[in-house]
Design brief:
Strand order of the largest sheet of chain B: 3-4-5-7-8-9-10-13-14-15-16-17
Oligomer: heterodimer
Shape of chain A: elongated
Number of helices of chain B: 4
Strand order of the largest sheet of chain A: 1-3-6-5
Shape of chain B: globular
Distance between the termini of chain B: 58 Å
Chain lengths: 127, 328
């Protein structure tokens, strides 16, 4: 059976349009949620990382976004140069010196382009 | 049990077995809780559930025929302050009776207030209290809407388990929410007078309008929490925003002929949440034969109005524009 646009009243088309916009995934979202990270959340890395990076699903504001890495004794071990990557505004990163084996936790706080803050933390381990 | 009592029992089961309405979403610390479908959760928020559709088949009982019950409901919630919210809800019911007429009509309008009185981001715990008002006489008696008001004081809780030790880290995405309340009818009993056409004899029948304990809880496993804060298990969109859950929505009358006879459903399902909207679907498994024998289905589209248009929807009378439920 052939489909015709005439079969759908204007109101139905509007509902479909609104639903399509609302259901379109992350590209249309204005908040920033973590998408993935390196080192990976909860994983053990064989080689010490040189930096910790978190990719978000939306662009984040450099001025209000922070990242910090702590060791098991809750001492800050990163190079305190956390930043939003200027070429990829979805990437929050910080350099770290060669980390000895142990448990570490990354604390992050970001503000999305629309002003909404999200924050969290995650662990990783160096073998 | 005589026919009248059986009919009363069937109607009471049908009415009370429906989900406890009114839902909200929100955050405790970094733990996000979606709006649950069958029971209320502890948050206050600016949001719209439209529609929530429930369909289940009730078995024949006594004089009552088997009935396919469909309910299409909507609900609008608005924050009045950061911790106080009001909800309006309505439902249209279709009762497709086997070998009998199909009954249609609106259920009573519902209005409720909720206040969050305890919030601990560190312990990821939140408590709130509320009161619901089923506005009697605003719905159709044909579909079971009562002519009297029912007032329901309720207590709500939400607890995320992100504070569990890392040795049991895979339990950290667990979420436990619940609600407990007592629906108190403003009319204790309905009295019906009948005249026997043959003898002219008057019979007076008095049916108790039972107070009902409405209780339920949900157990959720937040894959977003797992993926973002515990362990990257390789989930990508849209699977990293899924929340498998089981809801238990129960009702226990306290007095009358059906005192102590619990009805309800166990609802396994899944919720997907995005930035502005969440979608949920659950099966409704009757908890006992009093509730029914057939599995029903419950689905919902839920809009986060506070995130869709924060400056418009989150205005409050005493605290100005609150912004979205998510942290600012």
């Amino acid at each position: 059976m052939a489909c015709s646009g005439r079969r759908f009243p204007g109101s139905l088309r509007r509902v479909v349009l609104v639903a399509t916009v609302l259901l379109t995934p992350s590209a249309a979202w204005t908040h920033a949620f973590p998408d993935h990270a390196d080192p990976r959340v909860g994983h053990t890395t064989d080689t010490p990382p040189t930096q910790v990076r978190i990719w978000f699903d939306g662009e984040i504001e450099p001025v209000f976004s922070t990242i910090r890495v702590e060791n098991a004794d809750r001492q800050q071990v990163d190079s305190k140069d956390g930043r939003v990557n200027p070429r990829d505004r979805r990437l929050l990163e910080v350099r770290v010196p060669p980390l000895p084996p142990g448990k570490y936790r990354v604390f992050w706080s970001v503000v999305a382009r629309d002003g909404h803050r999200t924050e969290g933390d995650y662990p990783f381990r160096v073998k | 049990m005589n026919k009248c009592m059986t009919g009363l029992f069937v109607m009471t089961v049908a009415v009370f077995a429906l989900p406890i309405a009114a839902h909200a979403h929100g955050l405790i610390g970094k733990c996000f809780l979606p709006a649950t479908l069958a029971i209320d959760d502890p948050f206050v928020a600016d949001e719209l559930s439209l529609p929530t559709i429930s369909h289940i088949r009730r078995p024949a009982s006594g004089d009552g025929p088997a009935t396919k019950e469909t309910e299409i409901s909507g609900e609008f919630s608005k924050r009045l302050s950061p911790n106080l919210g009001i909800t309006f809800e309505g439902a249209y019911r279709i009762l497709d009776q086997e070998h009998d007429a199909t009954l249609k009509g609106f259920d009573n309008l519902g209005v409720s207030l909720k206040y969050v009185f305890f919030r601990s981001p560190e312990r990821q715990t939140l408590l709130s209290a509320g009161i619901g008002w089923d506005v009697g006489g605003t719905g159709s008696a044909a579909v079971g809407a009562e002519s009297f008001h029912t007032v329901t004081p309720q207590l709500f809780w939400g607890k995320c388990f992100g504070d569990l030790p890392d040795s049991v880290s895979f339990l950290q995405p667990l979420v436990f929410t619940g609600a407990f309340g007592v629906g108190i009818p403003t009319r204790h009993a309905n009295t019906t007078t009948n005249v026997d056409p043959g003898t002219g004899e008057l019979t007076v029948q008095r049916d108790i309008n039972a107070s009902v304990v409405k209780w339920g809880f949900s157990i959720q496993y937040d894959l977003y929490y797992l993926q973002s804060f515990v362990r990257d298990v390789g989930l990508r969109a849209p699977f990293n925003r899924l929340v498998p859950l089981v809801e238990f929505a129960m009702q226990t009358p306290l007095n009358g002929a059906i005192a102590g006879k619990t009805t309800g459903t166990i609802n396994p399902g899944i919720i997907w949440f995005g930035r502005y909207v969440q979608l949920g679907v659950e099966a409704q498994i009757p908890v006992n034969t009093r509730t029914g024998k057939n599995v029903g289905i419950l689905g919902q589209i839920h809009f986060y109005l506070d995130d869709i248009a924060p400056r418009f929807f989150t205005w409050t009378p005493f605290h100005g524009v609150l912004g979205p439920t998510f942290p600012r």
